[in-house]
Structures are given as C-alpha cells and as structure tokens.
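Q: Hi! First time doing this. I have a protein sequence and I read that you can turn it into a structure. Is that right? Here it is:
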Amino acid sequence: MFYRFRIRSFRARFAFAAVAGFVSVLSIIPSAASATSRGSGSFPVTLKYPGGTVTITHRPTRIISLSPSATEDLFAIGAGRQVVAVDNDSNYPKNAPHSALSGYQPNVEAVARYQPDLVVVVGDEGGLIAALAKIHIPVIVEPAANTISNAYTEIASIGRATGNRAKAQAVIATMRAQLASIVAGAPAAARHRSYYAELDQTYYSVTSSTFLGSVFSLFGLKNIADRASGAASGYPQLSSEYIVAANPNLIFLADTICCGQSPKTVKARAGWSTMTAVKKGDIVALNDDIASRWGPRIVLLAQDIRNALVRIYGKS
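A: Yes, that's right. Below is the predicted 3D structure, encoded as structure tokens:
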C-alpha cells in the first residue's frame, strides 16, 4: 500500500481507530462454555471492545479481513486457509485472496456476498458492525496499534478468534526474540541521535507516541516531531523551516514507494543542504509498505533501521 492512500495510510490507518472510538486494544473474555478449555481452538470466544462485545461460536472458516495489518496477522498465525477475501489495500502476502472490498468505505452487501462467518476490521467505519450484526455476521475490531505491545495483543486476540491460539503465541515469541536481537546489534553511538521521519513530501511526520515512532524509540533515537505544533495528534504536518531549524542527525523516508522520494530528491530541496543529515548523506529510504503495518513484518522494519544505523555509525 503506499500509493493511493499515502497520508490516509499512516494518519488514517494508525489514527483511524481513535477517531472511530476504538482506541483500546480488544480484551479477550472466554465465555462460560469455554472457561474450562484453554486449548488453541476453544469456542465460543467472546471479545470485548469499547462500546460492545462479539461472541464467536465456532472456529471460523470464511474470514474476511478489511485491515492490511490483520491480513498479515492472519496468515502469519496459520489462519490463511480460513480467509476467503481481503480488502483492496491488503497486498501482503501475495497469496492472500485479494478483492475489491474496501476497509475505508465498506459495503455491507459486498461483504455479505462472501457469506463470511467472521470479519476483521480496524474500526466501525460506516456503522459496519451493527449492519453485519443484523445479518448475524460477527465482527472483531483490531484498532490501530500505537505500541509494539498493542501489536502483540492483537495478534493474540486474532489467534483466539480464529482457533490458532498456539501459533499466535509462537509468532509473538519469535517477534520478541528477533526484535531484541536486532536492537542489541545496533550501535551505541546511534542512541540519542535526532531524526525526522517523513510520511510524504508535504512533511507529514510521526511522533514517538505512534506505532512507527515507537519502533524508532527502541533504538534510543530522538524524534524532532515530538515538540512540533500538532504533535498531540501523533501525525503533525511539519514545515520545511521547522525541519531545517531542528537540524536532525538522521532522515528516514517512508514515502519512497508512494511518492518517489529518495536521498537524491531530499538533497535537492531548497534550504536543506545546511542540515547535518543532508550534508553527511545520512538519509535512509524505508519500505513504505512495511512501515505502515503493525503486524509481524515490524521485524523487517527494525532490521532496516538497525542496518542503516550500523552503516552510519559503525557496529556496536
């Protein structure tokens, strides 16, 4: 993704849940019928989210994902064979059953045609949950994560909802171990270095309170957007003047695929040649697609950041 829905991809995809009123991550409440059974496929399972609950009575075999991150979670935990359709922004994995369904403007009739027994969404866009409830289709809400811990919780809840609890826990354990190893391999000299993370060439950025910002924080990096006007939103639009004055040590570009930005285009920007990161060439091109997801591929994002820091500051 990172193409048509550039800023919506980050600001809406990560902030969408807050606007819709689903800021908290789902908590899992085993129903009475499953309270004594703790196996990977225990059903029924009741999921509670702010504003409601949903009970999944049996292991779903016709799942629809209207969230690219949830799509990645589903396939990572072994639920891929249970998925019958994914939304038009879900482009990974390649073997997912892609469709024209939209997670931003969901069409109830189009979703119902697939006869799903579970739909996974980021938030209650367009009153989708109530509309599907009327035709007895359960929906689980997996809000935009703002921490890595939230991402783990969502993987676990999807595992319970789909009958893949054990594999979900295994995925989480692997992610934890890989991230710890990656961070441990980052150079100490990179800690406390300042950075600017770019979402598009109109200077939208992220603060440390966002999911992407939290990944940078693992390496001890300091975000110049944290003190900017509009920082409370998590996705402030900075000005060229603000960025130049902040003079970051590092620039990370998360708009390489969507918007054609590169170290070369950054160096050509008026007034930017005075910045430390530009003068030293410490401009890092990230994979936009991976940087916008809060699923298992965050390990790849962390790896790219670590590799860039090693290149710039040397090994630990």
